[in-house]
Specification:
Distance between the termini: 96 Å
CATH topology of the largest domain: Cytochrome Bc1 Complex, Chain D, domain 2
Low-confidence stretches: 229-249
Structural class: mainly alpha
Strand content: 5-15%
Largest sheet: 2 strands, antiparallel
CATH architecture of the largest domain: Orthogonal Bundle
Oligomer: single chain
Shape: elongated
Number of strands: 4
Number of domains: 2
Mean pLDDT: 83
């Protein structure tokens, strides 16, 4: 009888020690599992970002048509892995809700769309969490790995009011192909999806701004790159063409910026004065917004 009691106590002690050891080991595994899950989310989020977000927010999250997403206050951790003292605790929920529901804009023809399947769009809840994880923890220097390639480079560029000569349009395309513009930018039926779509750029940007930008993009101050632009009707940039709404000829003017912009990914591209003036003349007339 005594042997059975001793055996029972021994087994109970062994079982208790086993549970304690398992608990300690499992507790140690939790951070590892969480890190692994986060890495998978970040990697999936990068792919989604490259597919859906890069064109408006830039390959480095620096901002383009939309505001910068690669912002210090949205990163929970510093580069060395330490907690970021400047982190905004509301960042996750704000980013998630914006991706889910979209945001209105006073920029003509431009609005942050709702991406959630609840809104009938492309991304489910997990995919949205993946995008948020990438924005907060990912490396924006890697987004071009998953960026789509340019398509439709054999398509003719569109004609616009005030710029309809086929020979001139062909010359514009020649320059844009030679300088690599269409590898990043969509224009009409062809082009890339890395930079802003230029099909309607004349409704957002003045000829003066376009010339300054093409001449040296990194030199344009962040304050002049804001995404919140609208048309100011009293000022026109070109003579009003018959059949073209007056608003389509108005001077685009920046409103107060809510979000900062970072240095652009677009480099300075060497070109002649003739090439620069030709592109400015064409793009400043690129207006489809009514």
């Amino acid at each position: 009888m005594r042997d059975k009691v001793v055996l029972g106590v021994t087994l109970a002690i062994v079982l208790l020690l086993t549970l304690v050891i398992y608990g300690v080991v499992d507790t140690q595994r939790i951070p590892s599992l969480q890190a692994s899950d986060q890495e998978r989310m970040v990697e999936k989020g990068k792919t989604i970002y490259a597919q859906y977000c890069i064109q408006c927010h830039g390959p480095k999250g620096e901002g383009c048509i939309g505001p910068a997403l690669n912002r210090e206050i949205w990163h929970p951790l510093l580069e060395n892995g330490d907690p970021n003292p400047a982190y905004d605790d509301g960042a996750h929920d704000f980013i998630k809700k914006t991706v889910e529901r979209g945001r209105a804009s006073n920029q003509p023809g431009i609005q942050m769309p709702a991406w959630s399947t609840k809104e009938g769009q492309a991304l489910n809840d997990q995919e949205i969490e993946d995008v948020v994880a990438f924005i907060q923890y990912g490396d924006f220097d890697t987004t071009l790995e998953d960026a789509p390639s340019a398509t439709g480079l054999n398509e003719a560029l569109p004609a616009y009011a005030g710029f309809e000569d086929t020979a001139q349009i062909a010359r514009v395309k020649e320059v844009m192909l030679a300088k690599g513009c269409l590898n990043c930018h969509a224009l009409g039926k062809g082009g890339g999806r890395i930079g802003a779509d230029l099909t309607d750029v004349g409704s957002r940007r003045s000829a003066e701004w376009i010339k300054k930008w093409i001449d040296n993009p990194p030199a344009v101050p962040a304050a002049e790159r804001g995404p919140n632009l609208w048309l100011v009707a009293p000022t026109v940039t070109i003579p009003v063409q018959a059949g073209v709404p007056t608003s389509a000829n108005a001077q685009p003017t920046a409103t107060v910026q809510r979000f900062p912009m970072n240095t652009t990914y677009m480099p300075k591209i060497a070109m002649t004065a003739e090439e620069l003036d030709l592109l400015v003349e064409y793009l400043s007339r690129a207006r489809t917004t009514k």
